[in-house]
Amino acid sequence: MSKKIIQVQELKKDFHVGDITVHALKGINLEIEEGEFVAIMGTSGSGKSTMLNILGCLDKPTSGTYSLDGVSMGGLNKNELAGLRNNKLGFVFQSYNLLPRTTALENVELPLYYNTRIRAKERRERALEALEAVGLADRMHHMPNQMSGGQQQRVAIARSLVNDPRVILADEATGNLDTRTSYEIMTLLQELNDQGKTIIFVTHESDIARFMKRNVVFKDGRIVKEEWVKDRFNAKQMLADLPVDQDVI
Amino acid sequence: MNYTNSIKIAVNAIRRNKFRAFLTMLGIIIGVASVIAMLAIGQGSKKSIQDEMSSMGTNMIFVMPGTDQRGGVRMSASEMQTLKLDDVEAIRQSCPAISAVSPVVSSSGQAVVGNNNWPTTVYGVNDEYLGIRKYEVETGRNFSDREVQTYAKVCLVGQTIVENLFPDGENPIGQSVRIGTIPFKIIGILSEKGENGMGQDQDDLIMAPYTTVQKRMLAITYIQNIFASAASEGQNDEAIEQLSETLRRTHKIKAADADDFNVRSQAEMVQTFSSISDVMTGLLGAIAGISLLVGGIGIMNIMYVSVTERTREIGLRLSVGGRGNDIMTQFLIESILLSVSGGIIGILLGLGASAGVSAFMNWPTVIMPMSVIYAFAVCSLIGVFFGWYPARKAAALNPIDALRYE
Ligand SMILES: Nc1ncnc2c1ncn2[C@@H]1O[C@H](COP(=O)(O)OP(=O)(O)OP(=O)(O)O)[C@@H](O)[C@H]1O
Ligand SMILES: [Mg+2]
Description:
The complex is a heterodimer of chains A (249) and B (406).
Chain A: E1 4-17, E2 20-33, E3 37-42, H1 48-55, E4 63-68, E5 71-72, H2 78-87, E6 89-92, H3 104-113, H4 120-133, H5 149-161, E7 167-171, H6 179-194, E8 198-202, H7 206-209, E9 214-219, E10 222-228, H8 235-241
Helix pairs in contact in A: 3-4, 3-5, 4-5, 6-8
Chain B: H1 3-16, H2 18-55, E1 60-65, H3 85-94, E2 98-113, E3 116-125, H4 129-133, E4 137-140, H5 145-149, E5 154-157, H6 159-165, E6 176-179, E7 182-190, E8 206-209, H7 210-218, E9 225-230, H8 236-250, E10 261-265, H9 266-305, H10 307-319, H11 324-360, H12 369-395, H13 399-404
Parallel strand pairs in B: 3-8, 5-7
Antiparallel strand pairs in B: 1-9, 1-10, 2-3, 2-6, 2-9, 4-7, 5-8, 6-7
């Protein structure tokens, strides 16, 4: 039996906008085991991103508990949270969030700058490895504005991998990509999952969710449905089956 | 976090945004350079006025005729005839604080030597006048008391006269120069004095015995001015006191009546001029202060304008594991690098501008080390602070709030 890497209990998040309080999360209970590949689904505004941001230690819950790898987040200070983000978590933003005017390689290197144990030479090597893993080694000296959306998304994924995190969190990482590029990214994520990485993937597309092992559906700040995926899609297979002339259309 | 990493991150951030870095530096450069140049010009003109004044002799005292109210008719200054030769004699007799005194009468006219002529002024003075005005004889000699007594037609000439009347370089000594109808024999040449603080050429003059000018040229019995020297600079006030007393006595002025003469001292003028140039320096300082302020606001603006982009950058750095301290160290190093290099360029530019002003516009400039230090320190501090402070605020945000910043 694998161990539980993420444990969330009665998690709530309120946003205050003027006099109005938005209850974005209304008591979430969720457990995720090491090596899982979970899709968080739901309609727009259902609280998916809010949940993922809290799981990624980018935001704090209003109430409730969250433990990552057995450590409760509630008791940690800002620096300790930063350390966790650096060592255990890799976050892929929907809007990529790459540094402008900065090469792909340097963007991927970024998390390693904040890891004092890693020297300059190792930093470069690991960044290159991560770029190779996403198939962009030949683009390492390109700036974000010289790359397509899919390529930028892959740089962002490489950046989330470079620190060898325990958990990868991706928010709509295929949201604005074409089918082929989406499948390429799913292939990459399935490979990473096969190597043992825990992945949590936010999406509102149900066919994308079928690449994952488990689907959790959010509605109005609550989990309304949890199910194991039957007939899971194999991205590598589907990529191979994609008609070649689809590129031309 | 180790500092090599912080420095690398900061240098990379500057390298990637050269234009933004340049704009930030520009504010500092302009601020520092203008303060240095302004104060250099202010100090320079103040010092040159002071030098000028003291080269004229700070213990010089001069007397101008004032209104003679006894006649009941007011006259213009040039017509006033209240000063007499007897006054000079009385001053010499009864003013122990005065070491030298000379009457002055002057006449403008055309000086002619052969085919060359030049409009100038002839000053009729005695043999003490040179010492009072700090003129020196370069070649030849001063005229003697005996030559004064005998109405001798001898004269001393300034460099400008020599240049214009003897353009071919002949020796003027012993030659004759005709002024009006009277030929004067040149017995000495004055050494060069240059322009005075008001731009007058102090070498464009001829000096002759006052007796000669008074009787032979002007045909008058009164004198126009009296020039005197206090025995020492410290005795200036005493000398003025004694001189005024003497003149009131010889002019028979009652205690209740106003003087019919005006006494001025060089020391007084030096003071007036240096207080004028103090005001000027203050003004330039204020202008410099405003440039500092404008420079500072410029620095602030560019820092604040880039804060949106930079807040996102900070959010990203936080979200990949940068700590608040890492971010602040990075921004501190960035703004120190920009401010210090901007400050150094500003100093060089300021020194260059000062040198340029004195070279091309002939304005004297004096660089004050304090102004350099102040300008550099103030601008650099503004730069460092406004580079660091917004970053400090952003680094305290939740990563997601910094990423969402608009
Ligand atoms: N910073 C914020 N301030 C105020 N309200 C917020 C903030 N972030 C999210 N919300 C609100 O919380 C709710 C959940 O938002 P969230 O971004 O988690 O939705 P989502 O499921 O990710 O939607 P989408 O699929 O459109 O990305 C929404 O009603 C949203 O308006
Ligand atoms: Mg979302």
